[in-house]
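step 4 of 6: structure.
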Amino acid sequence: MNRLHFLTSFFCGGLRSRHAARGLSARIPFGAALLLSCCLLLTGCSDAASWSGLLQETEGTDGQIPEGSMQESISDQALPSFSETDGYLKVHFLDVGQGDSILIQAGGQAMLVDAGTNESGSIVTDYLRSLNITRLDYLIGTHPHEDHIGGLDDVIRSFDIGTVILPDAVHTTQTYEDVLDALLEKGLTATAPRPKDVYPLGDASFTILSPSEQTAEEASETGDLNNLSVGIRLVYGSNAFVLCGDAESDSEEAMVQSGLTLKADVLKVGHHGSSTSTCSAFLAAVDPDYAVISCGKDNSYGHPHQETLDRLNAAGVSVFRTDLQGTVVAVSDGTNITWSSAPETEGASEPSGARTQEVYILNPNTMKFHRTDCSSVAQMKEENRIRFEGARDEVIGMGYSPCGQCEP
Ligand SMILES: [Zn+2]
Ligand SMILES: [Zn+2]
């Protein structure tokens, strides 16, 4: 295993827009952000904590997992209830601002890939609670940047956790320490990702795509933590999703060279749509119909970059964006994929912009949602009262129905 010695996690997106943290943090001017990023990029600490102490080798499970069975197709626009997971694969791209957090449900099991920033921990835990999730069968922290592992400690403390998959890295930030502490508290160990390993998730499965041993070695030399990103290909029936954290073109090219199957219906665009990811060879190998870009509105990195949007557009890919659309949910029945909203664009540069943000109170017990001033909210038990900020369609997409009294 290679060790990386790094001082900071802020490079790929520790700074976030107002929208990103849903009003929780102030925007930092670009100049200041750039200066801070540059300062924090200095390397060289040798007294670093490591996930490797918590890592354990896994048994290879190559090729043992049957792919999910074919299911009946969804006939119209309506999403199936999100309280039911049998017969569907559900992939939720959470709006955590400038960061990633992806919830996957299949056959009664659940997996979380990343948990956004430190500030978005409660957004993620509330979202999971709103779906009555109490256990995550898998938890993947793609790489040690704060916009991916920031909320992991909250998640680890809030849910029953099964297998934890983390790349081996040495990192000295408080965010990283918080994750280690939470794992230790829960008596959890982490599993190192190994390309070709296959894991079952309900009646779906996922294969580890990255990082390759060589990519991880090179990442340790160059210090590009993004190329340590754990990449997976999730399969359900004949549908597939590829999610590779912030993997950049070096790692993407290694995946293309590996001979692993990359073809997928949906690509979670690498590194928030940065031009350093989604290289042509990788895009051609994945050959997606849909792409999801997870980034913060008006983020200081300029994500997604126009070059990436142009590449996706040229490939005829329909693009969803969490910065413009909020949380986006894809539901696969094994043959067809249904989305919680229409694509933002076909890769064109003119975004639709505004979407209506409201505050609702969700009751995961009754699966009803209310206006904040609804009289029944006051009578709800504290644990059934979940505050949700977003669009009405999002709430309905999550399987909630409007209260008949306050008619939200
Ligand atoms: Zn990132
Ligand atoms: Zn990153």
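step 5 of 6: annotate
 - The domain at 49-58+82-339 is CATH 3.60.15.10 (Metallo-beta-lactamase; Chain A).
 - The radius of gyration is 20 Å.
step 6 of 6: archive
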